[in-house]
Amino acid sequence: MKRLAVNGDQAIALSWKQINPDVCASYPITPQTIIVEAFSDYVADGEVDTEYVCSESEHSSMSICIGASAAGARAVTATASAGLAFMWEMLYIAASMRLPVVMTVANRALSGPINIHCDHSDAMGARDSGWVQLFAENVQEAYDNSIMSFRIAEHMDVRLPVMNCLDGFIVTHAIESLTPMTDEQVKKFVGEYKAVHPLLDTKEPHAFGPFDMPEYYYEHKYQQAMAMNNVLPVIKEVSQEFEKVTGRHYDFIETYRTEDADYVAIAMGSTAGTMKAVVDDLRKEGHKVGCIKLRVFRPFPYQDVAKATEGKKAVAVMDRAISFGASGPLFADIRSAEFENRIHPRTVNYVYGLGGRDVGVEDLKTVFKQLESGSAKTINYLGVKQ
Amino acid sequence: MISIKEMADVPVKLTEGHRLCAGCAEPIIAKQVLLGTDKPVVVSNATGCFEVSTSGYPYNAWNVPWIHSAFENAAATISGVESAYRVLKRKGKVQDDIRFVAFAGDGATYDIGFQALSGAIERGHQFLFVCLNNEAYMNTGIQRSGATSKGAATTTCPSGTCIPGKREFPKDITKIIAAHDLPYAAQASPHNWKDLIEKSAKGFEANGPAFINVISPCPRGWRHESAMTIEIAKLAVETCLWPLYEFQDGKWKITGESKRIAEGTKEKRPIQDWIKSQGRFKHLLDPKWKNLADEFQENVDKKWEELIKLSKQ
User: Fold this and answer.
1) How many Cβ pairs closer than 8 A exist between chain A and B?
2) Over the stretch A211-226, which tens digit does the pLDDT of each residue have?
3) N or C: which end of chain A has fewer CB within 10 A?
4) How close, in Å, is residue A242 to chain B by CA atoms?
């Protein structure tokens, strides 16, 4: 397939066009808006059959996706920042109803102060909502994750909603080279949607969302936890099948020059790409450094992370979000993974890039230098003006 | 319109096994509304008494597909179901001719659910939205809502020595909904089952969104005997506090007993009868708050005259 020059949002819209979902409900918010604008062009030109609903809020977008999915439709939406925060209540409900809704999140800082640029605080706020969360490094990965997420969400061992995260502006608005799949490949890969007990089957009526008292609520949450436990094997299976079709390899994490590295940094999203360039530069200067990109954040791949950090002298965990009064959310998970596996490299936390603060090669070199010199504190605020 | 004899043979969509209070008007209203169509229906339900009491897992009083997702979004949820219906019908994956109805209390209509309702109406989804209006948040224990009557005591606007219950008149939500210029909107009462079923039938068959606001007496919240529910609903209409009317294709039409009152063939009862019928207004009988009772009557008269004027346009 011919390569295209598109930005991340356009790539997501293209993936949706190829998937041709039944219902798309959305509300504009920067930096997601290009997705639904581009998709509405496909709708207006009759290139998809999708029922496209311009909702009056993100809360309603997710409510519409819940109604549509429960009715028996494949439903998608996209949002960012405050829009995701506004959906918060409904995220939990979509997950608890085991509805395979797929949502793209163009990661953007949460207010306040109001800011439209990238960080991961929006997705981190949805961390415990019961959604599978994938993070993309670049436009190609955002597109690929989008295609794969339908297979993951709709797998009968899973039936949970999936959130595809891509960095606001850095990936959503940057034009990169994309190698798309053909329409036929996507159609075959994603397959026909299989509804479970749909509301529109009026001959066999089912109730969604009944009142659940202490006698059963806990068991339903347990079932949800067990479904989440099934996700990693399904992601592996889907990624392997995807590789057979496209030749592109994906795993829960990606290690880059870590095998013989003494010092390792871990990041999600676009920063992982910058980190690879930094590793190459420092390797040329003789530093034994490497980096890990985390692609799957929920469920958290504890074993893979622990294996990749084993035997390192020090590890820097890059958090593009703050959990006030505690460490960054990614840091807590990484340390937990190490502790569980009885490996204890010196592990430190770097909060960085909040509200779209640019993080370049020199900034990330500082991280490795501080790791090597042992001058890094437990929690560091990279590049903050004091 | 089917006869009352035929109605008795229609399979019930909401069974009697629910846990609503004795004397609650909500299941009576829902059953009447659901008699308004013989097509298959899908129900969306906002959080509230009606949802809690008809769905406690693993039991369920519904014989039709039913979804509850949250408090403020019954209209958004049903618009999602209806959107799925449109596309799956287009693709030939659904054959049935299905109708869609959302039930919500006054809080889930006038207050927290208003935005989702307004949006769904503006988008033109084909659904009937029914407000079960008991004029307060009854599920959480009788708190003030935007539908609560002026002078009524609730647990968050109690009648005290200084403040005599709610100080504001309720929103006129039916007119606000009508201002969306939707195909059909109406007010109804469960005491006039024929009027309510006819209105529901029009709502189900409207070419787009439809809205029916139904007065729903609540013995617990309004402080009246359980056996008096239908009498109280009737009184709301006879005092013209709750006129029966419909708004269809831009025209206002007064119906039922309200029509007879407007034509002068039926007496309009004083609001004092309404005040005396319920414990929530008890304090208004104190001469200290006579001005409030007078204001109540003046407001009812003013709104009633406005409606008559609209119906003559």
Assistant:
1) 167
2) 999 999 999 999 999 9
3) C
4) 28
